[in-house]
Amino acid sequence: DIQMTQSPSSLSASVGDRVTITCRASQRISTYLNWYQQKPGKAPNLLIYAASASQRGVPSRFSGSGYETLFTLTISSLQPEDFATYYCQQTYSAPFTFGQGTNLDI
Amino acid sequence: QPQLVESGGGLVEPGGSLRLSCAASGFTFGDYYMTWIRQAPGKGLEWVSSITTRGGAVGYADSVKGRFTISRDSVKNSVFLQLTSLRAEDTAIYYCARDSLYYYSSGNTGYYYYYMDVWGKGTTVIVSS
């Protein structure tokens, strides 16, 4: 199975900060990488697919990049509604594993 | 507006069974793969199972293989997850999600990217005596 490791596991930041979350794959996955945001008590919400393609309706401050084993999610200027948990997921091969999550708080 | 609504969760004893349902509306159900994801209390997301458009191919996480069965009904616009031989570690919120496809071609090579763009609110399964 492909292991996905996110760093950091938790992160404290302030409104207006630029934040980067890293996701590492245990083997090469090309750009088969998605990012999701989850707020407490809610279902996850898709942000980025295919490593860098933005889902419709997602604010432009969210961007993704990366290839093969190293990927990043960047929030260019944190807004109050961005404080949440973020997950990466590989869709290169089953089982389609998630990272352990990054909890972003104030 | 595409929507997914899960049902069927509840409290069940270890070794018991449940059947989860996910009703789809607002989109052409037969055009999409469907997936179940779960989240144990205070834990991260775990992919559980996926099914192709006509149900011809399915996949399962190792943790549920042989115990869970995914299926779909194009008339009812629903996807199901049959849970058997339940264990305490199966306690979780179970989410149903729609898999959308992004196709990209470069030269003579095509790339198929799947991503879960519509999610239900989840149904809770508690396995306890």
Describe the secondary-structure layout.
The complex is a heterodimer of chains A (106) and B (129).
Chain A: E1 4-7, E2 10-12, E3 19-25, E4 33-38, E5 45-49, E6 53-54, E7 62-67, E8 70-75, E9 85-90, E10 102-105
Parallel strand pairs in A: 2-10
Antiparallel strand pairs in A: 1-3, 3-8, 4-5, 4-9, 5-6, 7-8, 9-10
Chain B: E1 3-7, E2 10-12, E3 18-25, E4 33-39, E5 45-51, E6 58-60, E7 68-73, E8 78-83, E9 92-106, E10 109-119, E11 123-127
What does this structure look like?
The complex is a heterodimer of chains A (106) and B (129). With 106 residues, chain A is an all-beta fold. In chain A, 0% of the residues lie in helices and 46% in strands. Chain A has strands spanning 4-7, 10-12, 19-25, 33-38, 45-49, 53-54, 62-67, 70-75, 85-90, 102-105. Chain A has a 6-stranded mixed sheet with strand order 2-10-9-4-5-6, with no helix packed on it. Chain A is globular. Chain A starts with a strand and ends with a strand. The model of chain A has no long low-confidence stretch (mean pLDDT 97). Helix content of chain B is 0%, strand content 59%. Chain B is globular and about 55 Å long. Chain B has 129 residues and is mainly β. Chain B contains no helices and 11 strands. Chain A binds chain B through residues 1, 30-32, 34, 36, 38, 42-46, 49-50, 53, 55, 87, 89, 91, 94-101, and chain B through 37, 44-47, 50, 59-62, 95, 102, 104, 111, 113-117, 119-122.
Keywords:
heterodimer, A: about 110 residues, 6-stranded mixed sheet, B: about 130 residues, mainly beta, 4-stranded antiparallel sheet
Ranges of chain A with pLDDT <50 over ≥5 residues?
none
Largest interface: A-B, 27 and 23 residues
The helix content of chain A is: under 10%
How large a portion of the residues of chain A is in β-strands, by DSSP E?
over 45%
Q: What is the CA-atom radius of gyration of chain A, in angstroms?
A: 13 Å
